[in-house]
Specification:
With 130 residues, the chain is an all-beta fold. It is built from no helices and 10 strands. Helix content is 0%, strand content 52%. The radius of gyration is 18 Å and the shape is globular.
Length: 130
Amino acid sequence: SINSVALAANKIQSNGSEQVLLNGAKWGTWFGTGIRKLTINTKNFAAISSFDISPNPFIETLTLELKGLKSNQLNIQLLNSLGQIVKTENWKIIEGANTKILQLSELGSGVYILNISNQEGSTSTKIVKQ
């Protein structure tokens, strides 16, 4: 079935019950609008305790926010859908709150993998450029 769910003003949370539009459909999609913050699971990455990316999708800039457990040097890699590295940066973080803004206006629209790593581990997530 294809279903429709009313959305709240933030375009992310539900504001009602689903409504069946087409019984027996063989495809599905999810669509939402608005700016979202993506919180990454850092359970297996000992350098940081939390990691947020916003907005996702982005247009020109991507803001990375994390809480470092100690001062550390991180490597940021952005890979395209073919697995090719399209951007690399180093980020020296301190214990506590850290923010970095990546200028990515030169990239084409599409899906990318953002990888943050150091010698102790890494975390990766998909991001979308409009």
